[in-house]
Amino acid sequence: MKSLFRIFSSLWLTVVLLALSIVLVFFGTLDQVHFGIHETQLRYFESLIAIWHYPMEWPFSDQLYWFRLPMPGGFTLGALLLVNLCCAHFRYFRPSWKKSGIAITHAGVALLLVSGFLVSALQEESQMAIDEGGRSNYSVSHRDNELVLIDRSAPDYDEITSIPQSLLKQEGAIPLPELGLTVNVLDFMTNAGLGTKMQNPNGPAPRANRGAAARMGLFAVEKAPDYSQNAINTTTALVELVGPDGSQGTWLVSNVIDERFPPQTVEIGGKTYELALRFKRTYMPFWLELKDFSHDKYPGTDKPRNFSSDVRILTPGESPQPALIYMNHPLRHGGYTFYQASFGNNDTTTILQVVRNPSWLVPYLAITLVGLGMCIQFLLHLTRFTRSKSASTSAKARPKGPLLIPALCLLTGLLIVARGAKPPAYGSAFDVRSFAELPVQSGGRILPLDSVARNSLRLLSGRQSVRLPEGGKVSAIAWMMELSFNPIAADKMPVFRIDNPQVLGLFGWQQGERKYFSFDDLRPHFQTIVDMSRQVNPEPDLRTAYERQLLKLYNSLNQYDQLARELQPGSGNPDELLLEYGAWERIVGPGRQALALRDQQKPFDEESFKRFDFLAKRYVQLASTGDLGIIPPVTEEGREENDWLNLGEGLLLTLSTDQINPIVEDYGKLTVFWRQGNAEAFNETLAGLHAKLAPATPGGHVAFEEFFNTFEPFYQASVLYVIIFLLAAFGWLFLPRSLLRGAFWLLLLAFAVHTFGLCARMYIQERPPVTNLYSSAIFVGWFAVLLGIVLEWVYRNGIGSFSSGLIGFVTLIIAHNLALNGDTLEMMQAVLDSNFWLATHVVIITVGYSATFLAGMLAIVYVVLRVIRAARRSPPPLPGATDPAAILYRMCYGIICFALLFSFVGTMLGGIWADQSWGRFWGWDPKENGALIIVLWCALMLHARLGRLVGERGFMVLAVFGNIVTVWSWFGTNMLNVGLHSYGFMDKAFFWVLFFGFTQLVFILLGIVVPARKNALTAPALKD
């Protein structure tokens, strides 16, 4: 018994269970591609045993299709972890205020494991659909079914007898003594295809002899279940009803034979029952009545901003209670929670997610305990470390060195930043910068034309400028001016990037000759592009790289053509645009009168009608395709929604005012004056246009965004990070005091520029720092640099500067490539439109990413120094470091503790947000699973170190592997195309994720095989 207790209380068992949990979550997440989230949850996380099958679409599947990987399921691991936690705590823990944080943390973890079992056993999810003006007192589960017999003989209520799907699956006799009959389930199909003999004479013979199936000649053929996210299986059963008088016939029931069909009825014991297989219903002791459903969109887009349901709660014997259900604000009533989930029927039907979970408060209490315990323990460690470091510093003052080289390093950095902050010289008499600052509306927000030009050019070519074949560059805004005012010249600029050799081969071009092509280059091949794009696989997930590139080219050409007509109609002679506008203004009145007479079948002026009809049709088409809002709203409704009008809509305003809109006219003048080379008139018109638009764009955001674009703070910071990285590296070899100090001073400057860029985005977007994948890369790098500055300030050995420079540069390069997808300041989806949760959960979880990356980088430095030491047979020249390996070990340990704290708190805050948004604290979404793996990995590292299962070298090798874990959570899960956080598959990202993983494995291998210093693998754990 004692030996069994020692096994269950051992830390090696903790580490093994944590490792098995990571394996389970990882393979369960992979299988969500095939089985969806719900089915995978049942197979992996709510099971005793889970089995992973080698996917058929993976490489070498012909040889490895047989491979099966059995592993303990979630219930098994959860129970073992709970037992291990309790036994280990009883064995090792001794009451002490110094360990109070650990005690509270472990109590919270134990409660969290218990809450997982409670939620699995007690939580019920379903949906309620209500039409405007209608009411409902039941919800429906589309994942579960029930066979019902309904007695409608009572005037005030229906008596329903329900048989759950779990019993139907057993395909046996189900006695119902209260009804005096037995239901024999002859066949049950989770998913089936239904057909009739008329449709398919070769199909199987119908097996039902009563009900709708007998009348229609209906048969069912079993199909494989569909596990995709929103799929609904056609569950079907063949049942025989046996009453007191014997068999009442064989019936085919299915959840698609619903209220749209006449009910199937059977008479038993003098009573008539309706027989149906339907989605499982949950009835409530109250009704919800929908007064109004709202579907708010961002102005000028179809992107949802908010969904809300204005309802009344109707309870018998009580007064009606009004309630508003909207995103992130559920309704809790009568033990049920109602969340705004979806909508239907052209925004007249609301769909509410209904959750019943008596234990919903338990996870909240558990994570509060864990978070509190971790914070207490972390602060105790930090206090002790600060005291010891302070004493060490006072005992031995830091050496001083010459300031000339650090000052020169800082001056160089300041010159780089000042050069970037200098306004660009466009070299033109036309006021290009003022044109770049013109406000427009796109993607639901107000932004300068400069941002439109840059975002468009990034989508087309992956660049923010055009490189001309004869040499030189054209800025994005200058390119857009040419495209808008002189399209013949713009059509000769190479702005379309084509990399795929198959796409190039369609046009007779060879890969390697060039990558960028102009509109004129592609013009002879337009029909080929159209024809081939129609043959692209309609399923995005099944498209090849060739099909994706071809479709991107097709969309880019359409976007280019549309952008050319955003500021001028793009038809006729642009030099005569003002004449066209004047003609339109003159013919609107007569044309409108002719149209009215024609509709009344009276004589009308055909010439006036034809001229009016010709221009009106063009402007209507322009209004329907235009994406750029250039005219502030002119109606009261438009002002409330801040919905700007595009050029076509502005021209159609003439129908009601009989005058060309002044802003449309000004853009027409800009076109003509540009083409005439009249810079003075162009600039004067531009100044007047700014004056007209100023009242609609208060606050200065637009002009500041243009400055932000031209300054490019993240590019400036990335240049500085490269210099810092090199200074720190050379500082270890030459002039360590001077170069390392210069690297640190320059790091402070780079961090300030990085911070400015981060704060500028927050000011422009009016959001917290992390809103999408692009901004997460910016923030991950920023916070890792901040931690690196703290490490460098404490240790002054160049490691913090070296790591910060490398991480800062790499993350900004990642961000640069993520920006190629368009506007990085895009508006938020409805469920994400919450600054509170963006500022808490998203920021804190991203801090966890930063910390684990920094720990991994320190571990890589550790491995590299070991390699250098093995090659040189002498210690690396770190200033003031008698044992650099020990210092790196201590740094890495502290950062991992920090990473565990923030990763756990951030993950749990995400659970609370999820609970407030769609009714489940934990939904096993791939992104949630990735965050959980980071938490489990950090916990595994600390427990392995605490139990002395790994020494210095082993701990650092584990920290390097943490980089792979973090990249999987950050990027890998997004590319599974499963769940609420999926951003789609990306070819280049997939390659770079694999490449990064390979490099980390190389460092891990080096860390293992390079000869260790004495006792490195078995070094005693550092004192906490």
Write a structural description.
The structure is a single chain. With 1024 residues, the chain is α+β, with helices and mostly antiparallel strands. It is built from 34 helices and 24 strands. The strands form 8 sheets. Strands 4, 5, 12, 13, 14 and 15 form a 6-stranded antiparallel beta sheet that branches. It has a 4-stranded antiparallel beta sheet with strand order 3-18-17-16, covered by helices on one side. The longest helix has 38 residues, at 835-872. The chain starts with a helix and ends in a 15-residue tail after the last helix. Residues 1013-1024 have low confidence and may be disordered.
**In one word, what is the shape?**
globular
Number of strands: 24
Classify the helix fraction into a percent range: 40-55%
Total DSSP helices: 34
| Main beta sheet strand tally, sense and closure | 6 strands, antiparallel
Low-pLDDT regions? 1013-1024
Average pLDDT for all residues: 87
> Helix/strand-derived class?
alpha+beta
Q: What proportion strand?
A: 15-25%
Distance between the termini: 32 Å
Work out the radius of gyration. 34 Å
